Amino acid sequence: MLDALSIDLTPAVAEQPDPLLFATVSGAHLYGFPSRDSDIDLRGAHLLPAQALLGLREPEETRTRMWDRDDVEMDLVTHDLRKFVRLMLNRNGYVLEQLLSPLVVHTTAAHDELIALAPGVLTSHHAHHYRGFAGTQWRLFEKSVELKPLLYAFRALLTGIHLMRSAEVQAHLPTLLAEVPEAPPYLAALIEAKVAAEHGGYEGPPVGGVREDFEALHTVLDAAQAASALPEQATAFDALDAFVVRRRVLRG
């Protein structure tokens, strides 16, 4: 298995027409169940020059670069800093997981500053993001009967529950199994099965019982949101606005 943290992004960074502020590993590697042939999902933010946002042409706010290394597909997707921060303020847990991922392959001082501002965007309404993502993945599981979307669905609910209770973004499923007491115990064995086969079929407890556990976690998430100490609105808007302007002026 290709070690995600051993990735040398120097060539990819050199090819970027604008500064790359950070790149981290997301997807199955971040969630704690990568298979030998799992793609490596790299996510981050770049910084467009001010003139790119002031002219008549549409700015290239999102960029994608794909390549293969040792027969493993890799893709780097980055957003311009303003778009990335707007997604953060839009209660998007996915971009927060990317920003706060411990699997860092490229970083800058701007990355550190943005991480420090991240707690100010956490709200109780982030539960909606994880509830919706979990539902989408469950429907994919019902269609494909593959293990991957099932783990994605449970991971999303457990991340949401943990966030509501602790104000901490934790995307690593094995860690969540220890942190959330309501997590079904059979998920540990399903993680092992997923690691053995990226697109393996589901071979676990009866689906009816798993559905009941999934729906029960929805109820747990609802209760955790209702009891959460997280605010309803982000508190870091002004600080993030100043950060984006400052970084645009400094160009890095």
Note the topology.
Blueprint: H1 10-15, E1 20-26, H2 27-31, E2 40-46, H3 50-54, E3 62-69, E4 72-80, H4 81-89, H5 93-100, E5 104-106, H6 109-117, H7 126-144, H8 147-166, H9 173-179, H10 187-196, H11 207-227, H12 237-250
Parallel strand pairs: 2-4
Antiparallel strand pairs: 1-2, 1-5, 3-4
Summarize the structure.
The protein has 252 residues and is of the alpha+beta class. The chain has helices at 10-15, 27-31, 50-54, 81-89, 93-100, 109-117, 126-144, 147-166, 173-179, 187-196, 207-227, 237-250; strands at residues 20-26, 40-46, 62-69, 72-80, 104-106. The protein has a 5-stranded mixed β-sheet.
Structural class: alpha+beta
* Low-pLDDT sequence parts: none
**Oligomerization state of this entry?**
single chain
Q: How are the strands ordered across the major sheet?
A: 3-4-2-1-5
Q: How many beta-strand elements?
A: 5
Mean pLDDT: 92
Major β-sheet annotation: 5 strands, mixed
Give the N-to-C terminal Cα separation: 34 Å
The tally of helices reads: 12
- Rg (CA only): 19 Å
Helix percentage: 40-55%
The dominant shape is: globular
Q: Bin the strand percentage.
A: 5-15%
SSE succession: HEHEHEEHHEHHHHHHH
Write a structural description.
This protein is α+β, with helices and mostly antiparallel strands and 252 residues long. Helix content is 53%, strand content 13%. It is built from 12 helices and 5 strands. Strands 3-4-2-1-5 form a 5-stranded mixed beta sheet. Strand 3 and strand 4 (72-80) form a beta hairpin. It is globular and about 55 Å long. The two termini are 34 Å apart. The model has no long low-confidence stretch (mean pLDDT 92).
